[in-house]
Design a protein that fits this description.
12-stranded mixed β-sheet; about 15% strand; 3 domains; Rossmann fold; Formyltetrahydrofolate synthetase, domain 3; Domain 2, N(10)-formyltetrahydrofolate synthetase; globular; alpha/beta; 3-stranded mixed β-sheet; about 550 residues
């Protein structure tokens, strides 16, 4: 059966029962129908949360199809609950871009899913819509201020970096001209659209700890410069209050359930190749406030989402993960070992062995944060016994725990070995998290530390534009901000064609965006697009609905 067909076989429990199981009285949740709810922010207790065991699920460098971090996260949480460890899985919300583009749904797979699958993959509780509206409100206010004769801040339109957003893949919107149509239609200028997941407001929502923090961060959004070369922020436009109002419900995390009837929290959805790639701080703290174990995931490979999870999110919120589960697939390792994408289902020990250096590098990176790793082999039906054994032998040679996980086919039952390994590592108290760099370091030092230590680059080059932006950052007094590097997910380098474990390569920073509201800088490397395009045959071609309202084609 497809993921959607499996999801439809499950009889969902009322969300009030799930809330009770989670530890919040049904009176205190805000219902969104029978099976979804918003959780109150006052249900977070940081003192209790500090005692929860936070487990991060990451992955090796993925194939274009992804390697199943979400599926693994859900399956692990089910298995921990089966072992009588009260556990909540905390995930990101899916963007409509990938849902209708190449990936399809993003709620796990097989018997390791969060439900209701269709709702979560589509509009859910409206969080993305609220973020989109708040973002575009600021864009409208900026253009209105440029047009105004009585309330103008004298913003230089050439310096405005704030675009508009829409939650769809639409390459035609990457670069647009606004203000055409005469003097009553605004001042013509070049701008563009990003996908909503790449919005700074998405990043802000996922790092804010409460409404007042959210409003302060929104006010700190850097807009551009005046003609007198003075910086302009959203608070100068008096925009932060109205933007916060639009986000008053979106800031609350969403409660749903797993296939096995356990609580799951889903909130926020920044991409990891162009943003920080993790769910909200609020959602993570909510899970930790009511669970002995909290399982969360970070987007793409460890070099992207997990590095940002550790260096940005954990430092910002004071989180200390106890273990990292590194999701590994035999097909991805063969891909990094030189096998053609179309032949990954064919046993190939040589390609697998050639791909092991990619796994090795990600394991090395985990230990740089002083956190213990566990290799989770996400099992596919085409994996041979010899291929599985090769990875187990590799793990044994490195003295690293490894578990075969069959979560797609078996749900929590398929991750019991993995869950026990996680419990063993937590009980051993071998992890003592430390960040890779200190925020107070110079911007170039932070970039080069990540590029050389995590990616394995020889050194970093900067374009003339990036160098000029470094000077602006220094003059604005923003050297202390962490860096959120935008980079391809397909390679450890900034070149998507360099697979495996590339060496002796150079990372090129072509520009640096300022995200003062989110509280980080965004060095952009390689050919990164903040507005993806649709493939030749998008997933939308297979999505349909009948007269009874039954959806098909989501997977």
């Amino acid at each position: 059966m497809t993921d959607l067909q499996i999801a439809k076989t499950i009889t969902l429990k009322p969300i009030s029962e799930i809330a009770q199981k989670f530890g919040i009285h049904p009176e205190h949740i805000e219902m969104y129908g029978k099976f979804k709810a918003k959780l109150p922010l006052n249900a977070i207790d940081k003192t209790v949360a500090a005692k929860s065991n936070l487990i991060l699920v990451s992955a090796i460098s993925p194939t274009p199809a992804g390697e199943g971090k979400t599926t693994m996260s859900i399956g692990l949480s089910e298995a921990l609950n089966r072992l009588n460890k009260k556990t909540t899985v905390v995930l990101r919300e899916p963007s409509l871009g990938p849902v209708f583009g190449i990936k399809g749904g993003a709620t796990g797979g097989g018997y390791s899913q969060v439900l209701p699958m269709e709702d979560i993959n589509l509009h859910f509780t409206g969080d993305f819509s609220a973020i989109e509206k708040a973002h575009n409100l600021l864009a409208a206010i900026i253009d209105n201020n440029i047009q105004s004769k009585t309330n103008s801040l004298r913003i230089d339109p050439r310096t405005i970096g704030w675009k508009r957003v829409v939650d769809l893949n639409d390459r035609a919107l990457r670069r647009v001209i606004v203000g055409l149509g005469g003097t009553t239609s605004g001042v013509p200028r070049e701008t563009g659209f990003d996908i909503t997941a790449a919005s700074e407001i998405m990043a802000i929502l996922c790092l804010a700890e409460n409404l007042s923090d959210l409003k302060a961060r929104l006010g700190n959004i850097f807009v551009g410069y005046t003609y007198d070369k003075l910086p302009v922020y959203a608070k100068d436009l008096k925009a932060e209050g109205a933007m916060t109002v639009l986000l008053k419900e979106a800031i609350k995390p969403n409660l749903v359930q797993t296939i096995e009837g356990n609580p799951a929290i889903i909130h926020g959805g920044p991409f990891a190749n162009i943003a920080q790639g993790t769910n909200s701080v609020i959602a993570t703290l909510m899970g930790m406030s009511h669970s002995e174990y909290t399982v969360t995931e970070a987007g793409f490979g460890f070099d992207l989402g997990a590095e940002k999870f550790f260096d940005i999110k954990c430092q910002s919120a004071g989180l200390k993960p106890k273990a990292v589960v590194l999701t590994t697939t035999i097909r991805a390792l063969k891909y990094h070992g030189g096998a053609d994408l179309k032949s990954l289902t064919i046993p190939n020990l040589e390609a697998l062995e050639n791909g092991l250096p990619n796994l090795e590098k990600h394991l090395e990176n985990i230990t740089k944060f002083n956190v213990s790793p566990i290799i989770a082999i996400n099992r596919f039906t085409t994996d041979s016994h010899e291929e599985i054994q090769l990875i187990k032998d590799f793990a044994k040679s490195k003295n690293i725990k490894v578990a075969l996980a069959d979560v797609w086919a078996k749900g929590g039952e398929g991750a019991i070995e993995l869950a026990q390994s996680v419990i063993d590592i937590v009980n051993s108290k071998t992890s003592d998290f430390k960040p890779l760099y200190q925020w107070a370091s110079k911007v170039k030092d932070k970039i080069e530390t990540i590029a050389t230590e995590i990616y394995g680059a020889e050194h970093v080059d900067y374009t003339s534009k990036a160098k000029a932006q470094l000077n602006k950052i220094s003059k604005l007094g923003l050297e202390h901000l962490p860096v959120c590097i935008a980079k391809t997910q397909k390679s450890l380098s900034d070149n998507p064609k360099l697979l495996g474990r590339p060496k002796d390569f150079i990372i090129t920073v072509r520009e640096i965006e300022i995200a003062t509201g989110a509280g980080f800088l965004i060095p952009i490397t390689g050919d990164i697009m903040r507005m993806p395009g649709l493939p030749a045959h998008p997933a939308s071609e297979h999505i349909d609905i009948n007269d009874d309202g039954e959806i098909s084609g989501l997977f």
